[in-house]
C-alpha cells in the first residue's frame, strides 16, 4: 500500500432534424445576408451531410467519453474565419431559434461547448487565433481560438523576461480558459489570467462588436471569471504581460507514505500558501500502479518558455519549445473531474482517512494547488472569479479510464463522486465552492431550454459566491431573452 506523493512542478439528433429542418434552412439562408461578399461564409459551414462534419466536430472534443454515437450532434458547425462570421452566426441563430454553443479549445469537462439536448449549432473559434504582441507596452491582443501553447510560444519567442499567468495544459483555448478564470504556476505571484486582462472584444446578442469602453465596466467584470458563454462571444482579449527572470527554477520531489509523505503534506498546508509569492509548489497525489523509484530532488534552471514545457512533462530535456505549437488530434483519455477549496488545514488523521479511501482507486489523482500571495490581495468582488483570501488551496480530483462506453463512464464517474462525498468534512461548505473552469454538472443544472433562476442559484453560488447576484444583473441588462445559455449559465431575472 503506497500512495505516492510528489511535491512538484510537473505532473437523438435525427429527431431534431425533422423538428428543426426549417430552422436550419432559415439559419443557413440568413448567414450570407450578414457578411460582405469579400468574406464568404459558405466554406466555413459544415452541416451534417458534409463529408468533413464528423472530423470537424471531433477535432475539438477533448474528452474521449464524448466521442460516441449517442452524444447529441449539432445541426451545423461554423468555423468562423472572420469576425463578421461570428456576428452573422449570432444574429442568424437567434433569428432561427437555434441554440448556440461556442467552442474555442473544446476542453469543457462536461462538453458544454459542443453538446446540447436541444437543436443547436456550434460556433467554432479555432481559426481565429492571431496573437499580436506589443512588447514596448508589455501587452498583447490574443484571439479566442489561440491555444495557451501558441501564446506562450509567441511570448517566449519575443522576450526572455515576459510571461503570462495562465494554465498548464498547452491545448487550452484562450476563449474558454480566460473567461473562466485561468490559473497556473504564476498564480501566487500575479494572480490568475483575468487579473491580467485589460480589454476585450465581444460579440453581443445583437451581433455588435464591443470593447471594454463600449461594453462598460460591468460586462467587462462579468466575462472575467463569470464564463463567456452566458454573455456573448469573446473574440479577443488584450492581456498584460508580466515580468519573469531570464531563468526560473523547477524541482520535483517524490515521497511515498513510507517516506513520511503524510507528514510532509500536513506541513505543506501550513507553508505552501505562505511562502514567498515567487514559489508555487503543487502537490500531485496518486496511487502508483507499480513500484516507483524516487527521483532525485534536482533543481532545473531554464527559461520561462522552457518551463511551460517541462512543467507538463519533466521527463524531457527541453531544448526546443516548438511542441507548444502542436494542436493535438483525437482525444485519447476519458475522464471526469471535480474540485474543492480548502480553507482549514486537514489534520493528520484526516489525511490518513483520505489515503485509505484513495488506495482502492488507481485511476484517480488529486492536485493540490496552493493559493495565498497575490490571490489574497485581490478582493472577492474585483472580478467575477471569487476564490481569493481565506483559501489555502484548490483541489482538483481527476478520474480517467481506458475502457470505452457508457458503462465505464458511469462506473468511474460514480467512483469519483463517492470520493468527493467523502471529502466533505475537509473542504469549504455553504456553499461548497467549485472552480468554474473545472466544470461539474453534478453540482446543479438548469434545463438548458429554460435556465431557471432558482436552479441557477444553486450552482451559481458554488461557482461565484456573492458575485452570482451581480452576474444575474449584468445578464439581465445585456441578454434579457437568455439567448446565450447552457446547463450552467447565468439566467436573467430578479433575485429580490
Ligand atoms: C487537460 C486539461 C488541463 C487543464 N489545465 C488547467 C489549468 O492548468 N488551469 C486552469 O485554470 N484550467 C485548466 N483546465 C480547465 C480549462 O481551463 C477549462 O476547461 C476551459 O474552459 C477550457 O477552455 P477551452 O476554450 O479550451 O474550452 P471550450 O470547451 O471551448 O469552452 C469552455 C467554456 O467556455 C465557453 N467558451 C469557449 N470559447 C468561448 C468564447 N470565445 N466566447 C464565449 N464563451 C466561450 C464554452 O461555451 C464553454 O462553456 C484544464 C483542462 C484540461 C482538459
Ligand atoms: C446538406 O444539407 C443542407 C441543409 O439541409 C442543404 O442546404 C445542402 O444542400 C445539403 N447538401 C448536400 C450536398 O446534400
Ligand atoms: C503604447 O501605448 C501608448 C500609450 O498607451 C500608445 O500611445 C502607443 O501607441 C502604444 N504603442 C503601440 C506600438 O501601440
Ligand atoms: C522564434 O521562432 C522561430 C520559429 O520557430 C525561430 O526560428 C526563432 O529562432 C525564434 N526566435 C527567438 C528569439 O526565439
Ligand atoms: C540537457 O541538455 C543540455 C544541453 O543540450 C545538456 O548539457 C544536458 O546534459 C542535458 N541533460 C540531460 C539530463 O540530458
Ligand atoms: C451495460 O450495463 C447494462 C446494465 O447494467 C448491461 O445490460 C449491458 O450489457 C452493459 N453493456 C456493456 C457493453 O457492458
Ligand atoms: C424543454 O426541454 C424539455 C426536455 O428537455 C421539454 O420537455 C420541454 O417541453 C422544453 N420546454 C420548452 C419551453 O421548450
From TrEMBL:
Specify the domain of life of the species encoding this protein. Answer: Eukaryota
| Key words of the record | Cell wall, Disulfide bond, FAD, Flavoprotein, Glycoprotein, Nucleotide-binding, Oxidoreductase, Secreted, Signal
Where it sits in the cell: the answer is: Secreted, Cell wall
> Which SUPFAM superfamilies does this UniProt record tie to the protein?
FAD-binding/transporter-associated domain-like
Principal localization reads secreted
The protein's GO terms of the molecular function aspect are: FAD binding; oxidoreductase activity
Q: Does the keyword Disulfide bond apply?
A: yes
Q: Report the protein name in the record.
A: FAD-binding PCMH-type domain-containing protein
- Give the organism, scientific name: Citrus sinensis (Sweet orange)
